[in-house]
Specification:
It comes from Phytoactinopolyspora halophila. The protein has about 650 residues and is of the alpha+beta class. It is built from 24 helices and 23 strands. Helix 16 packs antiparallel against helix 19.
């Protein structure tokens, strides 16, 4: 039996906090204004730091004095999580200003910036996607077979409305959301499934046990991933009233009053932390001006938040988090360079890098290195399960894909589009553990003659006008649907690819669209002939698997195969051929073993099959990104990953960022 536990650094601090909780606001810590007095630097904080009243935000202390809020010791759990600070103990107060130009990026504020709160979180260091650390849970016991995981929750932890957070909330999330027949399509339960849904049991208020039919070798990593956000975000005491299994009295009336079409829509709306200010949360900040009411989304501190700094001061330091929706990314770049955005995790394109760095002193900011988890600037996916049967036959021809890859002058794209940053690269893991030179570099040589040889071997000869003719007797033309509001470089790169492929007789039609339309057409319906996206999962092939084999509908090179892997009975599902089926078997074996060495061996075998299959065409390794941090914002690390799996910047503990002019 394996036990993972957190360090209890709180027992000696709790008594001191209890003694000072009723002190006046004048004794409380700094407010973000130098005149109000700053919290001591970490190296200067002595044993009497808390006794001086440094325990909670001044406005909360005032609410306690006025009888509007319970004392701090009644709001904190028995064992608050102690969070290390990057540089020094912070001060209370201020507003963290951000901006987003895409609704999708605005919506993921919950999991990236204000609500990265899982049973176990990724560590700040991450270390290639294997290391997790206790968070909502203080420890976990795992049986030797890897089929049973028993989590101990923080006793005394509360939702933002003061109600207890208990094991029943986890059970509700699993049984009544992730595996509810009506909600499952929205829930994405992939990391919670191993041979079927788990049996989840509230052993007592503070202990929850997951039991799987077969071993789940990646369960702790799965609960740290973005897809399990809701596992700790659904307060049962509040949401039961909107669920058909619990409300037989007036649910129909509530649906009618809401103007929505079903109880499912109502439940999803009421459980949305970006849109519902009444939803209790365990996050550091809670929405007060929701998405859809003006251009700004506003979050304010949660008085029941359950983490403290090393001196026992309740986090977060920052009072308010404001995100502004703007029309285009250029506005974000200009605002960041003017020092108007306190921490913006990704600013500008490779062309802007030098300018952003040179302007730092004048703009009163510094830059943060964003190391990409992405392994490719632009992955070109020819959809091998596209509804067009003729295109499907063409795209499933490996020689055709190889020929198009050799036709691409990657170095020119790197020089022109990415300003010399990066190197030619296919879809391949970049982590040292899984890097495969042959896989990463195969078919990246720019050679028009070789490209034509492969295309000839594919059976598609040129006509007198230099056009390759498909099996239907018509010139081969490929339409690429892409989200032109996601990445400014894709249009430039695709226009170059359009010319390269024209030279070898293949027509490419560019069809730019909004991200929301792209999601509907490509990710939800699989109607595309071709599409592009940045190649994710370079550092975490265990978790971002759809780049390496068709593991979900997000495998844009064969979404119907991904549907089949998740559910063979899905009406969109199609059984894949031998190669991808073997990859699916290997990944199932990875999930069924808790032996890390065996998992690595199996993943390497899976990637060898990827080399043979060559599903997608990569362009180049991505350059490092730049984040911009104003000089009034502190405790933001100089380096962090830019990733979906490690939901940047959440694992850096944004709660310990602070503002001081």
């Amino acid at each position: 039996m394996t036990t993972l536990s957190s360090t209890n650094r709180w027992s000696l601090l709790l008594a001191l906090i209890s003694a000072c909780a009723l002190l006046a606001a004048a004794c409380s810590p700094g407010t973000g204004d130098d005149s109000a007095g700053a919290l001591p630097d970490e190296e200067e904080a002595g044993d009497d730091a808390i006794a001086e009243g440094q325990s909670q935000a001044p406005e909360l202390a005032e609410m306690v004095d006025n009888g509007e809020l319970p004392p701090l010791e009644e709001r904190l759990p028995d064992e608050p999580l102690v969070v290390d600070v990057v540089d020094r103990i912070g001060v209370y107060g201020g507003t963290w200003r951000r901006a987003e130009s895409e609704v999708t990026e605005l919506e993921v504020t919950e999991r990236r910036h204000i609500g990265y709160e899982r049973l176990f979180n990724w560590t700040p260091e991450w270390e290639g996607g294997k290391e997790t650390t206790p968070n909502v849970a203080t420890d976990v016991e795992v049986n030797d077979e890897g089929t049973e995981f028993t989590f101990s929750l923080r006793e005394g932890m509360r939702w933002s409305d003061g109600e207890p957070f208990t094991a029943d909330d986890i059970v509700f999330a699993v049984e009544d959301y992730y595996f509810n027949d009506d909600l499952r399509a929205e829930a994405d339960p992939r990391h919670l499934d191993s041979g079927g849904p788990p049996e989840v049991e509230a052993v007592d208020d503070h202990t929850v046990r997951f039991t799987f039919d077969q071993p789940h070798g990646l369960f702790l990593q799965g609960v740290a991933e973005w897809a399990t956000q809701k596992l700790t975000a659904l307060p049962r005491h509040y949401l039961e009233q909107f669920h058909a299994d619990y409300n037989d009295d007036n649910l129909d009336e509530l649906v009618e009053e809401s103007g929505l079409s079903s109880w499912v829509d109502l439940f999803l709306d009421k459980s949305d932390a970006m849109r519902n200010p009444d939803l209790p949360v365990i996050y550091a900040w809670q929405v007060t001006q929701p998405f859809g009411e003006g251009n700004d989304v506003v979050f304010e501190r949660n008085p029941y938040y359950w983490k403290v700094d090393p001196e026992g001061n309740q986090l977060p330091y920052i009072d308010e988090h404001v995100v502004r929706l703007v029309e285009e990314s250029e506005v974000i770049k200009l605002d960041a360079m003017n020092g108007e955005l306190d921490f913006q995790r990704s600013v500008g394109d490779p062309a802007d890098r030098a300018l952003i760095m040179e302007n730092a002193e004048q703009g009163d900011y510094r830059t943060v290195t964003m190391e990409p988890d992405h392994m490719n600037t632009m992955a070109i996916h020819l959809n091998q399960t596209t509804p067009d049967e003729t295109k499907r036959e063409i795209f499933q021809n490996k020689d055709f894909r190889i020929g198009l890859s050799h036709a691409i002058d990657r170095q020119e794209i790197i020089d022109v589009v990415y300003f010399g940053q990066g190197e030619p690269f296919q879809i391949a893991a970049t982590s040292e553990l899984f890097y495969n030179e042959e896989l990463a570099k195969q078919y990246t040589e720019y050679d028009v003659d070789l490209a034509n040889e492969y295309l000839d071997d594919a059976g598609y000869e040129m006509d007198e006008q230099g056009r390759r003719i498909g099996p239907d007797g018509e010139p081969i033309s490929i339409t690429v649907d892409y989200a032109n509001d996601v990445n400014n470089s894709w249009t430039d790169a695709l226009e170059l690819v359009e010319g390269y492929w024209e030279e070898v007789g293949v027509d490419l039609e560019l069809n730019g669209m909004s991200r929301s339309l792209h999601t509907e057409r490509v990710r939800e319906n699989g109607e595309h002939e071709a599409t592009v996206w940045t190649g994710s999962g370079g550092l975490v092939p265990f978790m971002q698997t759809h780049w390496y084999f068709p593991s979900t509908a997000a495998a844009d090179f064969a979404s119907a195969w991904g549907d089949w892997y998740l559910n063979p009975d899905d009406p969109n599902a199609e059984e894949p051929p031998e190669g991808p089926r073997r990859q699916m078997e290997l990944y199932d074996e990875i999930l069924r073993t808790v032996d890390e060495d065996k998992q690595v061996e199996l993943m390497r075998e899976l990637l060898e099959i990827l080399k043979d299959e060559f599903y997608s065409i990569g362009i180049s390794t991505p350059p490092e990104g730049l984040g911009v941090v104003t000089n009034r914002m502190h405790n933001v690390p100089d380096h962090m990953y830019n990733s979906t799996s490690w939901p940047t910047p959440g694992p850096t503990n944004t709660i310990q960022y602070f503002i001081q002019e």
